[in-house]
Design goal:
Structural class: mainly alpha
Distance between the termini: 66 Å
Shape: globular
Mean pLDDT: 81
Helix content: over 70%
Number of strands: 0
Radius of gyration: 21 Å
Number of helices: 14
């Protein structure tokens, strides 16, 4: 019975991953106006499934047995890992934040490892170092290459009719978005089904097929809101800039997947967008509310999932008093963040009302 429940939780987790991480792969294409929201999430669904099936195996091995010993995992601990990660990710999806599912999942696994004091520290340090390097590289590459895009676009418009040039750039953008969605499937499917495989609850091939299908369902069902945040609310992208975002982050993630490293795809994508926006708007991009909110969630998410899984593991093992304290702090922090969110909404409405009154007067 617990095994079936764990598989159901993994499926629900994969659906949320499809919404949070995978749907963001088309943020560039949607933000650049190359496709509609419905078509974007459909492209993501197909390509993410193919990426999961054709190349998701190496990252599954890492999350199943590369951070903590696979012998440590059983159905109860697998449930704790999945529930802690899924809870954190679901809250982020409700807030329409493009969260890194890799950070959430690794944080949950580390929480269990800390409770048992069994962690492969070398592998963990390599993964966390990659979390810092990949988004920074995406930002740097996008900001540098963005300098050459206006000249390339001008050359195309000079040598081809304007309508044809736009069609070519639109198709290029959609293809790059599909390429990034493929990379998302390779890397992100392991976040949901890796613990199941590590615990021996399901065979790797069956788990990848199941996880890939749920990624697709999540992209179609829930991906639109996160797509809106990544594609429209951070900065406006040209067609060629959108292609640069998707190709840069997709390439970095595929390379990491070959080495079995779970990396923050959404961070790479968003930081590539930031790299372009930093050139377009200079310091203004860092002053936007959505930018600050995304950065805060990136910092908090692995710590929250780690604390949840660590506390739940201690409760399951010994009902340790420390676990109750940590859970209380998490609940208190969640309430505080909710209060801040309500205050931000109230201030935004008040500001909009004042601007409207000024316009009328």
């Amino acid at each position: 019975m617990l095994t079936i429940f764990a598989i159901l939780v993994a499926c629900f987790f994969a659906i949320n991953i499809g919404a949070s991480g995978t749907a963001a792969a088309m943020g560039g294409a949607y933000g650049g106006g190359a496709t509609t929201r419905k078509k974007a999430v459909l492209f993501v669904a197909v390509m993410a499934f193919l990426g999961a099936v054709l190349g998701g195996g190496e990252v599954v091995k890492t999350l199943g047995s590369g951070i903590i010993p696979s012998e440590l995992l059983n159905v109860e601990l697998t449930l704790i890992i999945l529930l802690a990660a899924c809870t954190t990710l679901t809250v982020a999806n409700l807030m329409a934040i493009p969260l890194s599912t890799s950070e959430v999942t690794v944080g949950s696994i580390v929480g269990v490892g800390l409770a048992y004091q069994q962690i492969y520290l070398g592998k963990l340090l390599l993964i966390t170092a990659t979390w810092l390097i990949i988004p920074f590289m995406a930002f740097l590459i996008a900001s540098r290459l963005n300098r050459f895009l206006p000249k390339m676009e001008d050359w195309l418009y000079q040598h081809l009719p304007a309508a044809r040039t736009r069609r070519v750039l639109a198709w290029l953008l959609v293809c790059c978005g599909c390429y990034e969605a493929f990379s998302a499937g390779m890397n992100n499917v392991a976040n949901a089904i890796g613990p199941l495989v590590g615990a021996g609850l399901i065979h790797s091939t069956s788990a990848i097929l199941l996880g890939g299908s749920c990624l697709s369902i999540g992209a179609i069902w829930l991906g639109g809101r996160v797509l809106e945040t990544n594609g429209k609310k951070i900065t406006q992208l040209s067609l060629m800039q959108g292609s640069l975002v998707s190709f840069t982050s997709g390439t970095l993630v595929i390379i990491s997947s070959w080495f079995g490293l779970p990396v923050p795809l959404t961070q790479a994508t968003t930081m590539a967008i930031f790299g372009i926006a930093a050139g377009n708007e200079r310091k203004g991009i860092w002053k936007k509310d959505v930018t600050r909110r995304i950065i805060r969630i990136w910092v908090y998410s692995p710590l929250i999932s780690l604390s949840l899984s660590f506390s739940a593991t201690l409760l399951w093992r010994w009902q340790h008093p420390l676990s109750y304290l940590i859970l209380f702090i998490i609940l208190l922090s969640g309430a505080y963040l909710q209060v801040l969110r309500v205050r931000q909404k109230w201030r935004a409405r008040k500001k909009a009302s004042m601007e409207l009154n000024m316009t009328k007067s």
